[in-house]
UniProtKB/TrEMBL annotation:
<dbReference type="InterPro" id="IPR025979">
    <property type="entry name" value="ChrR-like_cupin_dom"/>
</dbReference>
<dbReference type="InterPro" id="IPR011051">
    <property type="entry name" value="RmlC_Cupin_sf"/>
</dbReference>
<protein>
    <recommendedName>
        <fullName>ChrR-like cupin domain-containing protein</fullName>
    </recommendedName>
</protein>
<feature type="compositionally biased region" description="Basic and acidic residues">
    <location>
        <begin position="157"/>
        <end position="167"/>
    </location>
</feature>
<feature type="domain" description="ChrR-like cupin">
    <location>
        <begin position="9"/>
        <end position="108"/>
    </location>
</feature>
<dbReference type="Pfam" id="PF12973">
    <property type="entry name" value="Cupin_7"/>
</dbReference>
<dbReference type="InterPro" id="IPR014710">
    <property type="entry name" value="RmlC-like_jellyroll"/>
</dbReference>
<feature type="region of interest" description="Disordered">
    <location>
        <begin position="155"/>
        <end position="174"/>
    </location>
</feature>
């Protein structure tokens, strides 16, 4: 994994929006591909859903999905994700309904090629300690605990969105 070349900055405004076709994970939405691993298909994307977009399940992805809502709102299985909300859904997470009344732009990260499977997952993803079904990031406090005391005057801070208990990795601070 992570055979992608290092890219410091992506000028997303210079990338075209591409319509997602039928039979794919988010048909009729639009995508900007920010990066993709040629080995396993792991990718970073911007997704734009038009007002009124909806999809009925049950269905699931064969990849972990991590997303942060940048604009608008999207509802997944009855949970509303508005601007500045976040989720990490392990591979196999069942989506029964997904919709947006107003439209939505989000940034998403997939651990592998986001292949859609047109039936419910086996339920393990929803029980996984790795899952972060919903975070209101705007309401979270800023953490300044790891800052170098010499840099405190800069006010550098972060918000930890998740820790992966299976990898005991550093927190994801996106």
């Amino acid at each position: 994994m992570l055979e992608r070349e290092h890219i410091e900055f992506v000028q997303a405004q210079m990338l075209p929006w591409l319509r997602i076709g039928p039979g794919l994970a988010r048909p009729d939405a639009e995508i900007k591909l920010l990066s993709r691993d040629e080995g396993d298909g792991a990718c970073s994307v911007l997704l734009r859903f038009p007002p009124g977009w909806s999809r009925e399940g049950p269905e699931h992805l064969l990849a972990d999905e991590e997303f942060y809502v940048l604009e608008g709102q999207i509802e997944l299985n009855g949970q509303n994700y508005a601007q500045d909300t976040y989720a990490f859904l392990p591979a196999g997470w069942t989506r029964n309904t997904t919709s947006t009344r107003t439209g939505c732009v989000l940034i998403a990260f997939y651990s592998a090629d986001p292949v859609l499977v047109a039936h419910a997952g086996d339920g393990r993803a929803e029980q996984s300690a790795r899952a972060v079904p919903y975070l209101d990031v705007a309401a979270m406090p800023w953490d300044m605990s790891l800052n170098d005391p010499k840099l405190k005057h800069l006010g550098i801070s972060r918000k930890d969105l998740r820790r992966d208990p299976e990898r005991a990795s550093a927190p994801s601070s996106r």
